[in-house]
């Protein structure tokens, strides 16, 4: 997944899907200056990483953002490093709000 997120074009595609989910390849490629085939290759990497899910709707293939893998990384790696700072701030707040004795 980190390899998929490392590319700015793929992050841009995820941002487009975050803004409005369920886009076609044509809609996604209109925001980029690259060939249709290039966009398809980027989408394939995102699909393989589980960040994009596709579904057929009639003749169209719609692409949807799957935020679950990103959330799992957040919970596993980012959240645990911010817990210590948050608890320290809560303790500081409690200490500062104690009435003077």
How would you explain this protein's 3D organization?
With 101 residues, this protein is mainly alpha-helical. Helices cover 64% and strands 12% of the residues. It is built from 5 helices and 2 strands. The chain has helices at 2-6, 8-19, 25-30, 36-48, 68-96; strands at residues 52-57, 60-65. It has a two-stranded antiparallel sheet with strand order 1-2. The protein is elongated. The N and C termini lie far apart (55 Å). It comes from Asanoa ferruginea.
Key features of this structure:
101 residues, mainly alpha, Arc Repressor Mutant, subunit A, two-stranded antiparallel ribbon, 2 strands, elongated, DNA-binding transcription factor activity
| Neighbour order of strands in the largest sheet | 1-2
Computed structural class: mainly alpha
Strand content: 5-15%
Rounded Rg: 20 Å
Named at the architecture level, the CATH assignment of the largest domain is Orthogonal Bundle
User: How many domains make up the 3D coordinates?
Assistant: 2
What is the 3D shape? elongated
Total count of helical runs of at least 4 residues: 5
Mean pLDDT: 89
Largest sheet at a glance?
2 strands, antiparallel
Q: What ranges have pLDDT less than 50 throughout 5 or more consecutive residues?
A: none
N- to C-terminal distance:
55 Å
Summarize the amount of helix as a percent range: 55-70%
CATH third-level topology of the largest domain: Arc Repressor Mutant, subunit A
N-to-C order of helices and strands: HHHHEEH
CATH-assigned homologous superfamily of the largest domain:
Winged helix-like DNA-binding domain superfamily/Winged helix DNA-binding domain
